[in-house]
UniProtKB/TrEMBL annotation:
Its EC number is 3.4.-.-. PANTHER family: PROTEASE PRSW. GO terms for molecular function: metallopeptidase activity. The chain crosses the membrane at residues 6-22, 34-52, 64-87, 99-121, 133-152, 186-204. GO terms for cellular component: plasma membrane. The keyword Transmembrane applies. It is a multi-pass membrane protein. This is Protease PrsW.
Amino acid sequence: MLLSVLAAAIAPGLALLAYFYWKDRYDSEPLSMVLRMFVTGVLIVLPAMVLQRGLTIWLGDSPFTFSFVISAGVEELLKFFVLYHIIFNHTEFDEPYDGIVYATAVSLGFATLENVLYAFLQPTTFGTLLVRALLPVSGHALFGVFMGYSLGRAKFSKGKQVRFHLGMAVLLPLIWHGVYDLMMLTVPSSWMWVAVPFMLLLWFRGIRRVNRANAVSPFRWLKREEEIKS
């Protein structure tokens, strides 16, 4: 029973990680690096929990403060911190889509441990885990897409555009994450018709960024030339 619950809690994060990894059409990242960032996402859960507890004591836990500062603010800033300091200047970050791969890896590592903790600390059914796979785990993946897309643009920009896109790498996922959390706190849980369109909107915008990042890969033209020659 414990193993089945653990597998159900871990599977959504790994499945989504595989999905975004395989979306890299032209120059796949080393799997070891992707898994390293996934584990890094797991490891930042503890400092996030400590910071969130301290901020809750200091600021209180009103829905808006919790959503945009304590939850989204802490989590997205920690994700950005590790991505910027570990990946941004790494030699493997050599095309815009790489930002999405590594950011979703960190986000899904974080979401997976959250899901495991929830599965073992809360009364859980298969239906509950399915809903969590469709909402918070999927949400974290898409917040990672928004962060990674902007990191990719910053990596291959110049001048003031670098700072602008780095700022967007924090701001965009923080806003979407905050809106999601606020909706979960203030909208009755029976109103799934509100959550589902919101997630569809996130997926629509996320996939557009995936396609845009792939479209500007410098390896796209190299692959096309190889196909023509062959």
